[in-house]
Amino acid sequence: MNIRQSYREGVVGGATPIDLVVRLYEQMIEDMRHVGIAIEQNDIERRTSRINHAILIIAHLQSSLDFENGGTTFRDGSPQSGENALFDHRPARLVGHP
To answer: Which has the closest alpha carbon to 55: 90, 20, 29?
Structure first.
């Protein structure tokens, strides 16, 4: 195990659930910053890698949602929307689909 990985595991081990969510969002923002740089540099491999990582973060966040206790908050304010309306469209938008 390298020093960086050891540090990350130590930080995550002592984090609250809110801290973990914040860290995931921060990582997603960092991924998207790198996507922008990769686009400017025409680095398709890096762009794809960072988009895929951001999608994994969204999937992780989505899988931990409690729909029964979240009410309409997770339904984007609309009872007619599907349970995942808040997050369903995000991965598609990351890869350029409306």
So the answer is: 90
Task: Report d(CA 74, CA 61) in Å as an integer.
Answer: 12
C-alpha atoms less than 13 angstroms from C-alpha of 16 in its C-beta half-sphere: 3
CA distance 29 to 92: 17
Please tell me the pTM assigned to this model.
0.65
Domain residue ranges of the chain, discontinuous segments joined by +: 15-94
Q: How far, in Å, CA of 56 to CA of 78, rounded?
A: 26
CA atoms within 13 A on the CB side of 87: 17
Q: What is the pLDDT of residues 43-55, one digit of tens each?
A: 999 999 999 999 9
